[in-house]
Design goal:
By secondary structure, the protein is mainly α. It has one domain.
Amino acid sequence: MQKPWAKIRELAGLPDNLNLYTLRHNFASQLIAKGADLLTVSKLMAHTNIQTTIKHYGHLVQNKAKEYLDFL
């Protein structure tokens, strides 16, 4: 993926130090910030195991336990 990514960066005028991992990480982080659940993020990231998603992005998920308990 390095050659195609280098060409895309060049054509788009993106900085040389912008790597594909940074874009993927930002994509997942933004999804979670907007309220996406980890299963959805895992599928969109094409992770074969949700544990990968939990390991890298689980800390970004808001704890909604109190909100759910208050609802009851």
